[in-house]
Write a structure and sequence with these properties.
With 398 residues, this protein is α/β, with parallel strands linked by helices. It is 46% helix and 15% strand. The protein has a six-stranded parallel β-sheet, sandwiched between helices. Strands 9-8-7-10-11-12 form a six-stranded parallel β-sheet, sandwiched between helices.
């Protein structure tokens, strides 16, 4: 099977959760026997120099801070119109007749305007792989925003994005959501296409040789992502004072790419280290006694939560922070949705190494049993084979 991936940013290097999710599945499909190529936008805000990609990839530079008027006049929401590029259209048109894909996998609803280009140039089946129900992220930001003016602006964005996503739900031939919850949401919104849930996968390696550093608490995530920015502010303002009140020796490390200066300035306080971008996320997570994921807006899955679990590091998360992952509180994670319970979970794990080890070991077993990347990729390939057979039968049947 030949699969062409269209991605909103290059999957490599794997410096944030979205890139990791896209790249890991692409490599899994390749190992499962598919032929895979990628055509990717390379936004200025997230621009990378792509070197030594493990499979063929073409990148198209784009500045997503600029939007041309005609795009807006077609009723495309601003947040989607940022990803429109004539050069990207041309790259897709060139790749389709050369590569002759059976499936074109689109890695973001923001790229759905390019479905028409695929239909014009190819008979390939078009599949949307969605890492989030995007408008739900913005609705969550509305709920958490204190400024009335910003709430109004965010509500406008959320409403336009919701209308767009609902309108586009049946544009593709199938949808591959990242979680069962997202799949159920798509059905409620009116999706009638075949669907196959593929969570983010992990390839569990050997356990770290070194024990975690005593008293360390870590947060890592893309820091240009608004829900992660809100998480950091909540950690610094609400959570951390309560943690060090109970555990004065605790030390917090915050890491993540593309942090704005204002967030760096905000993330200051007692026993707090703001690292920004780290070269090796696995090494960062390995150092931590406890990993935290206090997310209050968003959807999909948190890749770094899965990676911490694979390393047998205990995690404290909100319900949204653990979203899409099959976990049970106090078995393989601690889930807490208010600040007092969250602080209690963190300090409990710091003070009770036996409890931390039990939860960490159970977390690793959960990842190994349910989120093996190669197993998930083989399942997706079987779904694509059945989709091609189904669509072929529809065409023959007239």
């Amino acid at each position: 099977m030949r699969i062409l991936l269209l991605t909103p940013r290059p999957p490599w290097p794997p410096i944030d959760g979205g890139r990791i999710a896209m790249g890991r599945l692409a490599e899994g499909l390749l190992r499962a026997g598919a032929s895979v190529e990628i055509v990717s936008l390379n936004p200025r805000k997230h621009r990378v120099a792509v070197v030594q990609a493990p499979l063929p990839m073409q990148t198209i530079d784009i500045d997503t801070s600029r939007v041309v008027g005609p795009a807006l006049s077609r009723g495309t929401p601003f947040i989607v119109a940022r990803f429109l590029s004539g050069e990207f259209h041309d790259a897709i048109r060139a790749a389709l007749p050369r590569f002759k894909p059976d499936v074109v996998q689109i890695e973001s609803p923001f790229l759905l305007p390019y479905v028409a280009t695929v239909r014009e140039e190819s008979g390939a089946r078009v599949v949307l792989r969605s890492l989030n129900v995007e408008f739900r992220i913005w609705e969550g930001l509305v709920r958490n925003e204190r400024s009335a003016l910003r709430r109004f602006a965010l509500r406008r964005v959320a409403a336009s994005l919701r209308a767009y996503e609902v309108r586009q739900l049946n544009t593709a031939d199938a949808i591959v959501p990242i979680s069962t919850e997202d799949g159920e949401e798509f059905r409620r919104l009116g999706c009638m296409r075949p669907m196959h849930v593929v969570p983010c996968g992990i390839t569990p390696g050997d356990l770290p040789a070194n024990a975690p550093e005593s008293g360390t608490v870590g947060f890592i995530g893309s820091l240009d992502f608004r829900p992660n920015q809100e998480a950091v502010m909540w950690i610094v303002d609400e959570l951390w004072p309560r943690v060090i009140e109970r555990a004065p020796e605790a030390h917090l490390s915050i890491a993540g790419s593309s942090a704005p200066d204002w967030l760096r300035r905000h993330a200051a306080g007692k026993n707090i280290e703001f690292l920004g971008t780290v070269d090796d996320a696995r090494a960062f997570l390995t150092r931590m006694s406890v990993v935290i994921a206090p997310l209050f807006a968003g959807g999909g899955m948190r890749i770094k939560v899965l990676e911490a679990m694979a390393l047998a590091r205990p995690v404290v998360a909100t319900t949204l922070g653990a979203g899409g992952i099959d976990v049970e509180s106090d078995r393989d994670i601690i889930i807490a949705d208010d600040v007092m319970a969250f602080a209690g979970g963190v300090t409990r794990l710091l003070r009770e190494p036996g409890t931390a080890a039990r939860i960490g070991d159970a977390a690793r077993n959960t990842v190994r049993d349910r989120y093996d990347n190669d197993t998930l990729a083989r399942g997706l390939l079987r779904f694509y084979e059945s989709l091609l057979r189904l669509m072929s039968g529809v065409i023959r049947g007239g």
